[in-house]
Amino acid sequence: MHSQKVQKIDLNNDYPCPCRRRGRLVPITLTEAFGCNRCQQIFVVQENGYVIEQLSTTYPYKRAWRWTGHQWNIAHSSLASGYFPLTLAIIFGLLFLLLLTTLNAPFSSSVTFRVIAALVLSMMLVLMLWLACRR
């Protein structure tokens, strides 16, 4: 079993590309960066040499990895993971209030129907948002 302890990235070594299995990261001379010989991506060394970050990306967030000595592990941003649940809670509250004020209850039911319907719809919409952002 391989160690999962994060190792410092040696700027003179080459590593497997975290994006593709067959590519190799080769050091770019006179920089603290690597280039993949297969996918042509550039990766910059960050956080005192323990993290590489993809420089040019089409993703809305920067992708980063840590080297364990045998493989790359995704480095999660603590800022993004801390604010995501708060953002979901705020969206849930706003959706709940919006749906509560706009839903019309049938004649035979009371305000309880509106509250339950707004709650269920809000939960479904937030769940769909969470599932979409998970990827």
Report how far apart the termini are: 28 Å
Helix content: 25-40%
> Strand count, sense and closure of the main sheet?
7 strands, antiparallel
Helix vs. strand class: alpha+beta
Question: Would you mind describing this structure in some detail?
Answer:
The longest helix is centred in the middle third of the chain and has 25 residues, at 78-102. The protein has two domains: 15-74; 79-134, no CATH class. The model has no long low-confidence stretch (mean pLDDT 80). The radius of gyration is 23 Å and the shape is rod-shaped. By secondary structure, the protein is an alpha+beta fold. It is 36% helix and 19% strand. Strands 1-2-3-4-5-6-7 form a seven-stranded antiparallel sheet, with no helix packed on it. The two termini are 28 Å apart. A hairpin with a 4-residue loop joins strand 4 (42-46) and strand 5.
Offer a concise description of the structure.
The protein is an alpha+beta fold.
Observed structural traits:
135 residues, alpha+beta, seven-stranded antiparallel sheet, 2 helices, rod-shaped
List the helices and strands and how they pair.
Layout: E1 15-16, E2 24-27, E3 33-36, E4 42-46, E5 51-54, E6 64-67, E7 72-74, H1 78-102, H2 111-134
Antiparallel strand pairs: 1-2, 2-3, 3-4, 4-5, 5-6, 6-7
Helix pairs in contact: 1-2
